[in-house]
Amino acid sequence: MRIVALWLSICLTAWSASQAVIIFDASGSMWGQIEGKAKITVAKKVLTRIIEGWNRETKLALIAYGHRRKGDCNDIEMLLPLDNVDTHAALKAVASITPKGKTPISRALRKAAEALRTTEEKATVILISDGRETCDPDPCATAKTLKDEGIDFVAHVIGFHVDKTTDRELGCIAEVTGGSYFSVDNAEELTRAMRTVAKEAARPEPLPNITLSASEYEGDAWIQAHHEIFRYRKKHFVNETPPKEDYVTSCTSFRDKACNVHLDKGRYMIVSTYNAFTRRTLLEVTDDKPQKRHILMGRTGKIRIDSIDGDKRVQANYTFYKNENGERGDYVTGCTTYSGDTCEATMPAGDYIVKIAYEYDGTYITYTSYRPMRIEPGKIKRYTHRFHKIAVRPVHIIPCLKIDYTILDKEGKPVIEKSAYADETTVAVLDEGNYTLKAQSGDQTVTLPVVIKEGNLRITPDFNGSHRFDPLKAVWYIDGIDSRVTLRHTESRVTGTYPTDNGKIVGKMVTSHRFEGFWIEDDSRKKCNVMKEGSYYWGRLVMRFDETMCRAASEWEYCDTAPNTPDSFNARYLAPLHNPQ
């Protein structure tokens, strides 16, 4: 009986509007129990009584979801079209509902909006659900979008014995549409909800007394703008949006239609947004006499951007900030040339700083630059940004050495700093212009001028070094343990030393890229039964060098056990030995 009373109370509220849409949850979870009965049984009984007593002056539509197929997010059906109620047909439709499927709340709201879109009359949507959205991300955002699109409706939402997370999700739908949310869980909460709805139903809906519209400039055509209205208090600043707790209502005006709201007596701030514009307007309401407010948002301009790399259109991101004396100010807007398409942005006329970001080859190479840009009122600016790649590969240098690259602009300011090994090609993205490349390895630096005009460029810094390279007479770095190994070799014998427990390596190259031998230390976690080169602490070691002989994957074990992968480490060439003997 308490659910029946709640539904009847909500429908009194619905009758203050000229039309209503009931969205009925028939998902599989409606077979769950509430007060010892299946929720679907209780809900169908309630809905039957609602239809039997429905006000024939109020048009009604009935939508059900999840009642025909399992696992189908598109199982949403208009059981009754929006019209005066045919009681016999309506009761027959309700009796046929059997829960089976999912909970596509967002899509059901859109289905209701389709029924309401053809009329400009205010409507009430009544949603009853026993669970969260199971198909789309955010039904609350869907409800807000529908309101912003001009669908004039209030949603009252009932949650059947739901958890707190579902309470928040369902309650948000009611909140953003100006409706009420009722979580049916116990008699006390239900009684409070009934009283609230009954009070609202007893009060006739006030007529709108504020009409809002907007244009860019006096005498211009109307534009679409969103208007949020807050109570204005003495503590508020006229150039700042009041806090959320002072929010009252909102509406969206369109190019061919103003929006209307009712405001009680008092002082308000209207915060209107259009593209990247925000305008704040103070308003005082002294009575119910209608007032019209036309908001002048300011002139805008457009920019259309293409991104070119070589002869290809590419994806890049453009972010616009206010230009405050040559420094980046607040974010304004942005656009992206997705899949090489032209991107377009509309913004207030004025001066900006645009951040240009381009990722070449995924996230491997990132280009970012900032440049000033002016947007003229009423004009379309066309801009093509051309990206130029330079590929740097040094010559006459030991391939394993690390090189630090710095690219300086014509004022000597570093624009790119990167590091790579000499056997790698380094790619950077630059704008057209004159630059200087500095490539440094150890105490040797090569400096080259770089001129970017069109297309891409390949650069080969020449270190004028010897081609002679012996990876077995060198210092190697052991990844993961931050240690170094010094290798030497004479004829077929390879030896080495490392700092851990006075460690030594002995063995030989069994192939041109594979070392097999032993590690020997003064102490370790395991003692062997026999000695190796005067120590009981030793084990077998294998090092597999890559083709460049700059990197090695190594495996080891204790004593004479064959090395295995779990006990492994990686090593890389660090520097040649100045005195290999």
Q: Can you walk through the features of this model?
A:
- By secondary structure, the protein is an alpha+beta fold.
- It folds into 5 domains: 2-202, von Willebrand factor, type A domain (Rossmann fold); 210-296, Sandwich (Immunoglobulin-like); 300-388, Immunoglobulin-like, CATH 2.60.40.10; 393-459, Macroglobulin (MG2) domain (Immunoglobulin-like), CATH 2.60.40; 474-576, Lipocalin (Beta Barrel).
- The longest helix has 16 residues, at 187-202.
- The protein is flat, with a radius of gyration of 37 Å.
Tally of helical segments: 7
Q: Low-confidence stretches at least 5 residues in length (pLDDT < 50)? A: 1-17, 197-203
CATH level 4 superfamily of the largest domain = von Willebrand factor, type A domain
Overall residue-averaged pLDDT value = 83
Terminus-to-terminus distance: 98 Å
Total number of domains = 5
Percentage of residues in DSSP E strands: over 45%
Gross geometry: flat
Major sheet size, sense and barrel closure:
8 strands, antiparallel, barrel
Strand order of the largest sheet: 30-31-32-33-34-35-36-37
Helical coverage, percent range: 10-25%
How many distinct beta strands? 37
**What name does CATH use for the topology of the largest domain?**
Rossmann fold
Query: What class, by secondary structure content?
Result: alpha+beta
- CATH class label of the largest domain: Alpha Beta
- Using only C-alpha atoms, the radius of gyration works out to 37 Å
**What is the CATH architecture annotation of the largest domain?**
3-Layer(aba) Sandwich
